[in-house]
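User: Hey, quick favor. My workstation is busy. Could you predict this chain's structure for me?
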Amino acid sequence: MDKKRIAASIEAMFRKQVSKDKNVKNAYLLVHSDQKDIHVNLAEGTTGSFPAHPRQPNYMASVGKLFTSTIVTLAHG
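Assistant: No problem, here it is.
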């Protein structure tokens, strides 16, 4: 599978998942692989009255520790 098809597949799955849950106001996804030469940076939904943008800063507060531990667990699982 070429990198354009991989990126399109990732984007389609992301947007489908976000649209399923009406409680999700906005979501961001960054997928980067030097090995596969893929870089996908996406945002969906709204931030206040503005559309979410993949390069806008976001405030994660204390969920950073939970996020990091989840990623480490998945990587070693």
